[in-house]
Amino acid sequence: MKTVIALIILVAILSVVISYLVREKRKGVQCVGCPHAAQCAKKSCCSGSSCCH
Amino acid sequence: MEQIMRLNEVMAGETHLVQDVKTDDEEMRAFLFRLGCYEGEPITLISKRKSGCVVAIKDGRYSLDNYLAEAIVV
Amino acid sequence: MRIAFAGNPNSGKTTMFNALTGRNEKVGNWAGVTVGRNEGPFKAEYGAENIAVDLPGAYSMSPFTPEEGITSSYIRDEHPDAIINIVDATNLSRSLFFTTQLLELGIPVVVALNKSDINDKENTKIDAEKLSTKLGCPVIKTVSTDDKNNGLADVAAAAISLMGKGQKAPYLQADIDLHDKAAVDAEDRKRYAFVNQIVKDVESREVKSSDTTVQDKIDNIVTNKFAGIIIFAAVMWAVFSISQTYVGPWVADYLVGWIESFKEWVAGQLENSPAILSALLADGIVGGVGAVVGFLPLVMVMYFLIALLEDCGYMARASVVLDPLFKRVGLSGKSVIPVVIGTGCGIPAIMACRTIRDERERRATAMLATFIPCGAKMPVIALFAGAFFAGAGWVTTLMYAMGLALILLGALLVSAVTGHKFRRSFFIIDLPKYKWPSLKRAFWSMMERAKAYIIKASTIILVCNCVVQIMQTFNWHFQVVEEGMESTSILATIASPFAVLMIPLGFGAWQLAAAAITGFIAKENVVGTIAVVFAITNFIDVDELAMTGGANAVAATMGLTSVTALAYLAFNLFTPPCFAAIGAMRSEMNHRGWLWSAIGLQFSTGYTVAFLIYQFGTLFTEGHFGTAFIPGLIAEAAMVLAIVLISKKIRADFDKKYELHNNVQAA
């Protein structure tokens, strides 16, 4: 009985986590959970004197 | 004739009018201009260090290194 | 409807953006914090159908101003519906230059006279109504750091009500040839003259800015050549020791104790279930993630202290103090801020390099900034300091000092390889007024990072730990591995080839190689994997472990001595930090050659430092070199050869580009 519960919990945790990761990757987030992720994802390189080549 | 000095020769606490920015580096000149350091504007030397100085330009405080301080003529 | 936030650097745009949208974008009391653009809808009470766009600071939109590209192009190309011009009210004479340019665009502008509280304190009076009449737009006093009387609602309302209406300019630039530098210059001066007149009319000051103040006296001490560096070292030491030695572990003790008991409970519940289930849930998930989460208090305290440091205005002074040192290695004070940011996280540190004008310096700083240990590396340091050196503070200090030393040495190497640079770069930095750091904002900044840490731990690290646990439990025929036969597991067979490469470094065990490899996904994984592979969770209270397993059970389990532990620690700290950092480097470098050189440099550095520590450490403690000294030496020689070859190629390319008479005979 306990085995079944444990198995269900395990599968539940893994499916939630993996679906979260997949969703984030689709959004283009490189560093999951990182607060600067939004600035990372876009290829906005232009601000310094030598802009995108 | 008024004495021509570079900024790093000025005494701390003195205010002078900028006369020129002698440099080939256009970026430097443009940047200084945007902060308010150009001909005719006052600049105050707040303090001097071995490697640079702190100045007041238009209500702002900036730290300059010697390369900049030597280029500004007052 | 989009409303852009534009203004001078460090005027309070991002603080206002956060207040109006409820976001928590990074702020800091120095010019150059925001390097990209941030977008988000206004909070409901301000009008959620409108989107706020936070832009990096700019001093002007004139041509020949390369560093303000994002702001200038956004406003010109993407036509926001209104602009909120955040003006630093303590420096009206500089700020209005940009304001008058914004007013010429035909887009409605609302001027927010920010930092008005500082003006009130210093008795600087600005007649907002008069200014409004002269500029032809609303002028509202704001204090974006205040929670209640901040004027933000008025600003938002004013901006929204003006959307769609045009804007009359109080000053129009004459039609000149924008390619003619002299003409542009002359026009800019005229504009400044106009601004000067306005300021004379509307502003009255009690304290003249050319007067020396208490803050200047503090600056004198803090930027002094000797005292300044000591103060800097003391400040950084205080941040790290409070978080790692005093407050941090004190809280972490409780947390880890609780996690440990939970793990035993889970293991107990699953006693009669298949071992793999217990291994996954108890050791892998609770144990592995728990080991990482156990370090959360240390990381949180560090982020809190760093937030305080970033808020008070000291960062700019730190740059000034270290500028001479950095100039000696071919960088400048501009590179100091990315390095200090790097003590938090390497990704914003790499992005902060955008403010460095010189291309070579920018790229060099981007690839060296990650040598300073980041927040994710802290659990690794804490683990080894705790398990092998009784939590001694000097381990942490040593790692940070080494990080800084490697940055400086690395800069010299980059200078040497890319050839002598003839253009001197100048260093000028805005010195913001000191202020008491906001505890509240530091708290929220800390919570934001804590949330990120927990999310990372419960997702990536959790998955990695499960994968590692599975790979460790099964062999290639998917049979459970017997005790004593661990080296036949999937994990062992994959990690062993890499482990061979690490023998000259003193840690040729496959478990450690596996941990180091997982560390490239996230540095915290080193802790997680070690926890899973050696079935340990409590790294904080090592005394307890010592009681159960005899002196230094953790050390014994891992099969490491003090010397090899230090070498292994160095390896993990100074090799490329994580794929996310590599990704950030890729965007910054914008050049395949530099990117691969960066990765190569970081691998070589980690390898070399570990090699040196192990070999010479063993020589020092045991009187002979460690194992595989010669192979290691050969590997080092190969690295030196690679560097020399790259250097030759760069110089050859340079020559080819600038040589004049190739194959031409003299007359």
Record the SSE blueprint.
The complex is a heterotrimer of chains A (53), B (74) and C (667).
Chain A lengths: L1 H26 L9 H5 L12
Chain B lengths: L14 E3 L2 E2 L4 H10 L6 E7 L3 E6 L2 E6 H6 E2 L1
Antiparallel strand pairs in B: 1-3, 2-6, 3-4, 4-5
Chain C lengths: L1 E6 L5 H9 L16 E4 L2 H4 L3 E4 L14 H10 L3 E7 L3 H12 L5 E6 L1 H7 L2 E2 L1 H8 L3 E3 L10 H11 L18 H22 E2 L9 H9 L2 H45 L5 H19 L2 H17 L1 H15 L7 H7 L3 H7 L6 H10 L9 H12 L3 H26 L9 E3 L8 H35 L16 H12 L8 H9 L5 H11 L7 H8 L3 H6 L3 H13 L4 H11 L2 H31 L6 H30 L9
Parallel strand pairs in C: 1-3, 1-4, 4-5, 5-7
Antiparallel strand pairs in C: 2-3, 6-8
Helix pairs in contact in C: 4-8, 10-11, 10-12, 11-19, 11-22, 12-19, 14-15, 15-26, 16-27, 17-18, 17-25, 19-22, 20-21, 21-22, 25-27, 26-27, 27-28
Structural class of chain A: mainly alpha
The backbone outline of chain A, from C-alpha atoms, is elongated
Poorly predicted runs of chain A are 41-53
Work out the count of structural domains of chain B.
Answer: 1
Ends apart, CA distance between termini of chain A: 62 Å
Q: What is the third-level CATH name, the topology of chain B? A: SH3 type barrels
Model regions low in confidence, pLDDT < 50 over at least 5 residues of chain B: none
Care to give the gist of this entry?
The complex is a heterotrimer of chains A (53), B (74) and C (667). With 53 residues, chain A is mainly alpha-helical.
How does this model look, in words?
The complex is a heterotrimer of chains A (about 55), B (about 70) and C (about 675). With about 55 residues, chain A is mainly α. Chain A has helices spanning about 1-25, 35-40. Chain A has one domain. Chain A has two helices and no strands. Chain A starts with a helix and ends in a 12-residue tail after the last helix. Mean pLDDT of chain A is about 65; it is low at about 40-53. By secondary structure, chain B is of the alpha+beta class. Chain B has one domain: Ferrous iron transport protein A (FeoA) (SH3 type barrels, Roll), CATH 2.30.30.90. Chain C is mainly alpha-helical. Chain C is built from 28 helices and nine strands. The interface between A and C is large, with 34 and 56 residues.
